[in-house]
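Weekly structure sync, notes
Attendees: PL (lead), two postdocs, one rotation student
Agenda item 3: pending single-chain targets
PL asked that the sequence for the first pending target be pasted directly into the notes so everyone works from the same version. It is reproduced below exactly as submitted, 505 residues in total.
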Amino acid sequence: METFKPSVTERINHMGPQSLVVVGGVAGGASAAARARRLCEQCGIVVFERGPFVSFANCGLPYFVGGEIVEEDSLVLQTPATLRARFNLDVRVGTEVLSIDRAAQVVTVRELATGRDYEEPYDSLVLSTGASPFRPPIPGIDRAGHFTVRNIPDVDELMAWIKDCPACRAVVVGGGYIGLEMAEQLKHRGLDVTVVEAMPQVMMPLDPEMAAWLHAELNANRVELHLNDPVAAFETPSPGETARASIVVLKSGKRIEADIVVLGLGVRPETSLAKNAGLELGATGGVRVNEHLQTSDPKIWAVGDAIEVRDAVTGAWRLIPLAGPANRQGRSAADNIFGRPSCYEGTWGTAILRLFELTASCMGANETALREASIPFEAVHLHPSSHAEYYPGARSVAVKILFAPETGKLLGAQVVGQDGVDKQIDVLATALKGGMTVNDLAELELAYAPPFGSAKDPINMAGMAAQNVLAGYVQLAQWDEIALLDPSHAVLLDVRSQEERAKGF
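Predicted structure, written out during the meeting:
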């Protein structure tokens, strides 16, 4: 008689929980719920989402504001009806989870439309509560005409405000991803745009000399830029001033008239639910999880922007709110819940931004993070062409790689340019994940044809330049070290042609 061997699905169904509750239906939460259904056909899976939409593309919101995405419906990837039809998920939008009773394993929820409160039991719970826009206690920050961009209702309100104001003057406070994307898109709509940044540069994940390319691009597109000058207050106009929203007062005393203010000051993890339930939070303020994305309660997992993650290069705990990692975390958490051991190693911080004609990208650690972690490093800069120079349309690309001075292990990279940046950063991100060294970069065999690349690919060239450093053939002096050189023992020689220098120096 043949011995019966249960299928993988049957084994998982047997060991999995009977009820899974997911708090938050965007990115990590939606991914966890969909993966859970694939692993357990019989389990009850309930997803609570406080907002009116589930599984929407919040990364696409600026492009809807600018008109590149025409239909708002394009931003809604799934609805409660489609998720029920495809995955048999019970998705309840407009429903806020108020509290977690860990001992009883129930959550208390409220239907926002009716005010009805009720309890929902769980065997396992996934928190994907995300992050909320940071609103520091600046006087006047809550005045009318001030907007954040985090969800679809946010952009609906913003669009209604500027509908009858095509010549509005916009002030974007914050020079991170959302701030720069909104500056670009508001400029596309014909608004006069000013960006205010408290730090000496925009895009803090980039090192200063790489961020300088973004400063030049903003200036080239007539976006006024104020650096190292934080907002002190938002005020009503004084006599002689006009502003539909606010007078933006900077620390320096500069007063900027704004018909609309976009607050792009970053996000903070939504952890009140976890904190009130007594779950451990980390020093960064995010929910602390282990390598299996399990919180301090073994029945509760957490994913996405609400958690702190290990920096995969430095090992430090960090808040890295990125959509790609959040989706992978959701899948990994579901695997662990249903008995398929999965480890989330950490986040590499691979990210990319388009700003008008320029693309800026980064991955791994920058110089600041490496210094904070006391990790020694060398840096190599090069400016190759995006493809063969003799083929029309070749553009210069600024490439920076950071590597260990003894072993050549790749630690991070930044690429800025007008063409081919996404390709280069993805190759470098793959190399970093694979633990490659600069010697490996020099030997990579990458696709080449004149319209697409060069026989000496920029990645190969970066590896070769770093090899020269490792071998001791050259010693490097970085841009910020030039002023420290002894002029009696050092000569600064610029070997660029006049045409090369005219492109920037």
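Discussion points:
- The CA atoms of residues 175 and 202 lie 5 Å apart.
- Confidence is low (pLDDT under 50) at residues 1-14.
Action: rotation student to compare against the earlier draft before next sync.
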